[in-house]
Amino acid sequence: MTVTGKARIAGVMGWPIAHSRSPLIHGHWLARYGVDGAYVPFAVRPEHGADAFRALAKLGFAGTNVTLPHKLTAFQTVDRRDAAAEAIGAVNTVVVEADGSLSGSNTDAPGLMAHLIASAPDWRAEAAPAAVLGAGGSTRAAIFALLAAGSPEIRLSNRTGAKAEALAAAFGPKVTVVDWAERAAMLDGAGLLLNTTSLGMTGQPPLEIDLTALPKAAVVYDIVYVPLETGLLAAARARGNLAVDGLGMLLHQAAPGFAAWFGVAPAVDDALRAVILKDLK
Ligand code: ATR
Fold it and tell me: Does the predicted model carry a pTM greater than 0.85?
């Protein structure tokens, strides 16, 4: 697709930014839908984040995705935020409105939920407790998403217990904290096991957890997608649990921004997944 003088421009702002797969995702959709637009990496130094966000409207850009280290600056700089961004404390998608003001959202939470629903159609948030490992930024998004979807109880375990306690205090009594050493016990009766730690990622130690107590009907979701099949997912699949990898979350979180900037609600399908899988190899 040729870019004309009328092209809509969006991108992803981060530092470093060269590793980002967002240009591949949006580039695939731009070509597929024949959109007169471009999606480019914005390499913005940490100290220039606020200036860069304010410049979006002046440059006539449609908006931007936001990655490290700018998610908090985006949160502080935009003129309004959606409920997910408020609860998570981070903005990953900025839309320049017609009047030049900036709307910020966090699409990690809806991205996770859209992916979970698409991959595990029989799973119901309200049906059983969720067991969540971790206490980082993606954990916040996951807890917000699960509570919004009606989860009755979230059992949270993290190596550094104080971080899990802080999240539980922020999200209220449905979130309970389990000692890292006791994490296998929290699987009893759970409908979902969600890993939001970096354990199991290439170059990191494996995630060690005894799955014996986990019901066979539970879904096991690993936010890690390099490798696609983590040790956790392989172990879950071997005992009959439905195992879901984290790549879909990356793809689904991109969709709301694309729709807002380019006016087409894009499909998250196997063709898109194949594009990213090829790049991961
Ligand atoms: P993000 O913001 O992307 O979710 P993060 O803030 O870097 O990621 O969090 C990484 C998560 O992996 C944390 O929960 C971290 O546990 P700590 O809070 O104790 O640091 C977890 N993690 C990383 N390495 C770990 C390890 N070797 N053992 C246990 N947990 C680990």
Answer: yes
